[in-house]
Design goal:
Belongs to the leucine-binding protein family. Keywords: Signal. Helix content is about 40%, strand content about 20%. The chain is α/β, with parallel strands linked by helices and about 425 residues long. β13 and β14 form a beta hairpin. α5 packs parallel to α6, α7 packs across α8 and α11 packs across α12. It starts with a helix and ends in an 11-residue tail after the last helix.
């Protein structure tokens, strides 16, 4: 009996020890995630662009979290994960402002947005006012796609950082190819009627005038953003103009529907685009786009080199559906720069983080970029590609399962892609 009692006491002691250990483990504070607010069109005509961005940002944060998260002195266990929270702007500026207020109320201090320079402009203004009014709740704005040059020039802000090449930088890269294409003697300019679309056409005229004064601009047209369902009338005018090429900054459905209409009316000229390499445009053109659609980007899947190839293949493994094939290196570099800067700042303090971001310099899979402190414009290499069939020389990878990809025809180093800035920033 005594033996059984002694054994029971041993078991009880062991159980108590286990419970104590379990309690201690439960008492251990879990590291609070660093919340990132993604404000994008997640419904409406440009929902596909918002969802595509979301996949990119999530994949980038997964990479950071897989290596332990962001190491901060005050974090439980020494590190904190990144967490992306979605806010639907519905493609409307007022909705984006409401989303910004909701994100701030939810305790988010890092805001991300990019698809629409008009939205970016109102967010910058709202964040400037908020940060002045409530210094204890200051937020930073990371921009990955809004490329109106004004955002890092006249409207530059200490709280805003742009990780995409702006429209003038992209236009200069395209002009490198147009300058050598002596078969083009006439060009039609068409774009979306808002700040970015207007900036693209304005800069196209300026750069054509200085670099290809022999080229005639036979059309210069703006159309409503996201509201045109039938681009046939525009395509008919482009064809009737006799233009041998089109320059457009259109994106999303406004680009897909435009190139599809051009194909349907039999237009055979070239398209020089900012975003013709994804979101349905190659599939819409099919064989009609081979050798005729030119796109400028920060990176393309067929950029030569094993690191670039491995990067793209890892994205395809994470998102195997062809329709999800929309990967942008700049979004990955942006999140890497954020993680680096959080660790350099040693905290999530907004001012300290902004100062650290000004010094960000990152590399990933053979690509690199650095933030320019003077205007918060990220400096990176650019590439220009021409659409071709998968399997053609230089086209190992297609996009979106379309059977068409982009062969890289020009690589522009970061120091060659750089443009001057007129920013007069108020610093903190």
């Amino acid at each position: 009996m005594n033996k059984l009692r002694r054994q029971a006491l041993k078991w009880s002691a062991a159980a108590l020890c286990a419970l104590a250990a379990c309690g201690a483990a439960l008492a251990q504070p879990r590291p609070l995630p660093i919340k990132l607010a993604l404000i994008e069109s997640l419904s409406g005509p440009f929902a596909n662009t918002g969802e595509a961005v979301y996949r990119n940002i999530v994949w980038a944060t997964e990479r950071v979290n897989a290596r332990g998260g962001v190491k901060l002195p005050d974090a439980a266990g020494g590190a904190r994960p990144l967490a992306v929270e979605r806010y639907d702007s519905k493609g409307q500026n007022e909705e984006a402002l409401s989303a910004l207020r909701a994100a701030i109320d939810d305790g988010v201090r890092i805001i991300m947005q990019g698809n629409s320079s008009a939205t970016a402009a109102v967010l910058i203004e709202a964040i400037n006012k908020h940060n002045e009014r409530e210094p204890g709740k200051r937020v930073l704005y990371l921009n990955y796609s809004a490329v109106d040059p004004i955002l890092t020039n006249e409207k530059c802000s200490f709280w805003h950082f742009r990780f995409d090449a702006h429209a003038d930088m992209r236009m200069a890269a395209l002009m490198d190819v147009i300058r050598e294409d002596r078969s083009v003697k006439s060009i039609y300019l068409i774009g979306q009627d808002y700040s970015f679309g207007q900036a693209v056409l304005r800069e196209a005229r300026r750069q054509l005038g200085s670099q290809r004064p022999d080229v005639a601009v036979v059309g210069d047209e703006l159309h409503p953003v996201g509201r045109v369902k039938d681009f046939a009338p525009y395509a008919v005018k482009i064809k009737a103009s006799g233009a041998q090429a089109v320059i457009t900054g259109n994106w999303g459905n406004d680009l897909t529907l435009l190139v599809k209409a051009a194909r349907d009316v039999g237009y055979e000229g070239r398209f020089y685009t900012f975003y013709g390499n994804a979101l349905g445009a190659p599939a819409a053109l099919g064989d009609a786009g081979v050798g005729k659609v030119v796109a400028v980007a920060d990176w393309l899947p067929n950029v030569p080199g094993a690191p670039s190839e491995a990067f793209y293949q890892s994205f395809r493994e994470r998102f195997p559906k062809p329709a999800d094939d929309y990967v942008h290196m700049r979004m990955q570099l942006m999140v890497e720069a954020l993680a680096q800067s959080l660790e350099r700042a040693g905290s999530t303090d907004t001012v300290a983080l902004a100062r650290a971001l000004e010094k960000a310099s990152v590399q990933l899979s053979g690509q690199a970029g650095a933030m320019r402190a003077a205007d918060h414009q990220f400096q990176q290499a650019l590439v220009v590609g021409v659409m071709d069939k998968q399997g053609a020389p230089g086209v190992k990878f297609d996009v979106e399962g379309s059977g068409y990809g982009f062969r890289v025809v020009r690589q522009i180093a970061a120091d060659k892609a750089v443009q001057p800035s007129s920013c007069q920033m108020q610093r903190f």
